[in-house]
Design brief:
heterodimer, A: 504 residues, alpha/beta, Rossmann fold, 2 domains, six-stranded mixed beta sheet, 33% helix, B: 353 residues, mainly alpha, ABC transporter involved in vitamin B12 uptake, BtuC, two-stranded antiparallel sheet, 68% helix
């Protein structure tokens, strides 16, 4: 049976009157990494869900080699040779079990395994898989003790146990640091060499530059461009995806006003170096650094979720040491947390209710909420942030990731604050929404200080007047975002004593 | 192959944007339609069912369960669950009887003692859950056992009635005050003489207050936020622990109100009564999920759920169904309602993506 590649022709899928895929043609050769780019709503996730057997297609055909691919369920899709590793890593692993059980869980579910666990056989088999995949982990470690990156690799290793013809990776690096992503890329290179066709979905240009052999751009349910060859045309691919080129960010750094937040001799951890930092009115400061560099700890210190080990935080000259988010909010420090789905979105609420959660007091009289005032504000915010929805009463989960993030931003823009902290505001956000959010943040920045924590340097360059680099829980470098030397930032991000890795 | 491929995907029903399908209507109004259907059915086939007396009887039979169910609804809203309500109610009943019959105090003292007890138990439940991180089901289950035992200690396991012999050998001198008994027995005139029992007034007033609190005030809104995503709520500055404790307090206080009404109706502290309160109240609150397709705890749904069970049982009784079929019928209704809530609503939300 020749399963050398996957060929999709005339693929169609509609939800009601909404045509999501309109006759998509795509070939995925074996042993090549095909990067798939597309703004949210372009139909990427629908394509992935059809390939992984979650949705049934409305028309067209999918051939794996010379066999028609007709999955009846996600499990059937895996048996027939298409394996998908989804974006949310915890769907792929079971935290309470150890690595070995995680790697072998599909085998355990097969009838052939027998009734008893046969621990020794299980460990041996798991070790073999781990070794083949280059996982340097003791297979007896519980997954709950592992970091995000290891979990991701385990999910992929588990997928590879099925020896798929096509491996789909859906934004696999979205929560990995550069060094961790490197391990993933090494694994992908290895799988490629084994002749697996790989469909790699990502928003990150740095990933795509590193890993892609071909780029496919999707727009409005169709393939808008296919880029192959020795020198890939990245700008062309982005252009095809968006319908216009990435405009050079014409960002004019503003003149900072007086200092709002002054950090002096701040030690985030007992063993980290002390640092000073001042954030001024009107300016947007981006904090960048690897995962675990202390960006989030800094944001959380300002918001009352983390108590620094030493040093002083001052807000408008007065001591600022909030004991809880409620205190921080009263002092005028607002924070939009990272990991929208677990930290910000209230799934049972509609758009309007999600927006008003922190400041319900402002929308109520004698504790009674005024629905009309709430809706009015929500409508204005929907307009101002160009949130794509039918009305402010839509459930929050009916929105795309980018639009959900806009709602989370709107939540904190409805009131004046002294400092707005945005922790990873571009996580799982398509490029167009990312532009809208960045624009809005910059346009409203007057009169307050704004701190944006981002792992991606591109994002920092796009939004900030000043870029601050953190390493090992301390600020190690600062750059004004004008004709900035990207290489210098990268080396600061990587850190002095750690020369093994650069982000791009 | 193409015939197969042309079929619409089973899990994504086609749905005109903004319009509503039959499924939507069924989810939204199915349960209320069922309620109306049931009323019509019994009105036609059960002689004497259609009439104000029968209606009042139904209300009265669901009043105490309904009040408890409104309390448990508040704990469901914050993502918790209160299994202790039944035993809080019976404890309040025993306490009221003890205060008046044995300690010879007034009705006012008994009422205050019961309300304080309910609030304290609620706070203890809340603290167990919030501070000591005991899972809500286990904390309130433990509290339930504790109270079932505690309420029997003062009288060495006997029911409390006027003129009973105390463990010390003396005879209890106190009595239920007429005012207290009136809470369970007095009826107001409305059109007909002696039509509306006070317990029904209690149910309606408490129902309206709980509904207003949960739906219209910011505290109710924030309690829903806590129940949906406690972490996100905390990160918007919401006092998550405070609202959780508040919910258990409301639940405890309402359960003690229910217990007092029970004591007033029975005129004694009856060890054996109130066994069904917990399950009936929880069933009413869970059936409430299905009303108007809310798919979440809500005061209106809870009231409808309690009413639904009451109508069903009253109708069946009047059609001479044996008493032992009651629990079976209640269970069946609950299972159907849960299917409504979880299977159908889940299907709808998947179709909306």
């Amino acid at each position: 049976m020749d399963r050398s590649f996957c060929r999709i022709t005339g693929l169609k899928k509609a939800f009601g009157e909404n045509l999501v895929l309109c006759g998509l043609d795509l070939e995925l050769p074996a042993g090549r990494v095909t990067a798939l780019m597309g703004a949210n709503g372009a139909g990427k996730s629908t394509l992935v869900k059809i390939l992984s057997g979650v949705y049934r297609r409305d028309g067209g055909r999918i051939m794996l080699g010379d066999t028609a691919f007709e999955p009846t369920s996600p499990a059937d899709a895996i048996r027939k040779g298409i394996v998908t590793v989804h974006q949310s890593i915890n769907d792929g692993v079971i935290p309470d079990l150890d690595v070995a059980s995680n790697l072998m869980i599909d085998r355990l579910a097969e009838p052939g395994w027998g009734f008893f666990l046969r621990r020794r056989a299980l460990l041996a088999e798991a070790r073999r898989i781990a070794e083949r995949m280059g996982l340097g982990i003791d297979v007896r470690t519980p997954v709950s003790e592992l970091g995000v990156a290891d979990r991701q690799l385990i999910a992929i290793a588990r997928a590879m146990a099925h020896e798929p013809a096509l491996l789909i990776l859906d934004e696999p690096t979205s929560s990995l640091s550069a060094a961790e992503a490197q391990r993933l890329f090494d694994l992908v290179d290895m799988l490629k060499a084994q002749g697996v066709a790989i469909l790699y979905i990502s928003h990150r240009m740095s990933d795509i530059r590193r890993i892609a052999d071909r780029i496919v751009s999707m727009r409005d349910g169709e393939i808008a461009g296919l880029f192959e060859g020795d020198a890939l045309d990245y700008e062309g691919a982005v252009n095809a995806m968006l319908g216009h080129g990435l405009t050079e960010t014409d960002l004019a750094p503003v003149v900072p006003g007086r200092a709002v937040v002054t950090l002096s001799g701040l030690k985030l951890r007992p063993d980290s170096a002390p640092f000073d930092l001042a954030l001024h009115e009107n300016e947007v400061v981006a904090v960048t650094g690897l995962l675990g560099s202390g960006k989030t700890a800094l944001a959380q210190s300002l918001f009352g979720l983390h108590r620094p080990a030493a040093g002083r935080m001052a807000l408008d000259g007065r001591d600022h040491a909030p004991g809880s988010p409620a205190e921080a909010i009263r002092a005028g420090v607002f924070m939009s947390a990272k990991d929208r789905a677990s930290n910000a979105v209230i799934a049972d609420f509609d758009i309007a209710r999600n927006m008003t959660v922190p400041f319900l007091g402002a929308f109520s009289a004698a504790s009674f909420v005024s629905r009309s005032r709430e809706r009015q504000t929500a409508k204005e915010m929907i307009e101002a942030l160009s949130i794509v929805c039918q009305s402010e009463r839509d459930g929050i989960l009916t929105l795309s990731g980018g639009n959900q993030q806009k709602v989370m931003l709107a939540r904190w823009l409805s009131q004046e604050c002294r400092i707005l902290v945005l922790d990873e505001p571009f996580q799982g956000v398509d490029i167009r929404s990312r532009r809208d959010i960045g624009d809005k943040v910059r346009r409203t920045a007057r009169g307050r200080a704004t701190l944006v924590c981002v792992a991606e340097l591109d994002e920092a360059l796009e939004i900030a007047d000043r870029i601050v680099v953190m390493h090992d829980h301390a600020v190690t470098a600062e750059f004004v975002n004008r004709d900035v030397d990207v290489a210098a930032i990268l080396s600061a991000v990587t850190g002095p004593a750690d020369p093994q890795e650069t982000a791009a | 192959m193409s015939a197969e491929a042309d079929k619409p995907a089973p899990m994504a029903p086609s749905r005109a944007p903004g319009g509503s399908t039959l499924l939507d209507l069924a989810i939204r109004y199915g349960f209320l339609a069922l309620l109306v259907g049931l009323l019509l059915f019994f009105a036609i086939f059960a002689p004497g069912f259609a009439g104000p007396r029968s209606a009042v009887f139904i209300f009265q039979s669901v009043a105490i369960t309904g009040i408890l169910a409104l309390g448990v609804t508040c704990t469901l809203v914050v993502g918790g669950f209160d299994l202790s309500i039944g035993s809080v109610a019976t404890s309040a009943m025993m306490l009221a009887a003890y205060v008046m019959v044995v300690m010879e105090q007034s009705a006012g003292v008994a009422i205050v003692a019961c309300l304080v007890m309910g609030a304290v138990i609620g706070v203890v439940n809340g603290l167990l859950i919030v501070k000591f991180k005991v899972p809500d089901l286990l904390a309130t289950l433990g509290m339930m056992f504790l109270l079932v035992g505690l309420q029997r200690i003062p009288t060495e396991g006997r029911s409390i009635s006027v003129g009973m012999t105390l463990p010390s050998g003396e005879t209890a001198e106190g009595a239920f005050s007429p005012f207290f008994l009136a809470m369970g027995r007095h009826r107001f005139d409305l059109v007909l003489e002696n039509l509306i029992p006070i317990s029904v007034v209690f149910l309606i007033v408490i129902g309206v207050i709980v509904w207003c609190f949960l739906e219209l005030t910011r505290h109710g809104r924030l309690m829903y936020a806590v129940g949906s995503n406690a972490r996100a709520a905390a990160l918007t500055g919401t006092n998550v622990n405070g609202y959780k404790i508040l919910a258990y307090m409301i639940s405890g206080v309402l359960a003690s109100v229910g217990g007092m009404l029970l004591a007033a109706r029975l005129g004694r502290g009856d060890i054996a009564s109130g066994t069904n309160l917990l399950l009936d109240a929880v069933a009413a609150a869970l059936i409430g999920f299905a009303v108007l397709g809310a798919a979440k705890p809500n005061a209106f749904g809870t009231a409808m759920g309690a009413l639904f069970v009451g109508i069903l049982l009253q109708g069946l009784t009047m059609m001479n169904a044996p008493y032992y079929t009651q629990d079976f019928v209640k269970g069946a209704v609950l299972v159907v309602a849960l299917v409504f809530t979880f299977a159908l609503s889940a299907r709808r939300s998947r179709g909306e993506t």
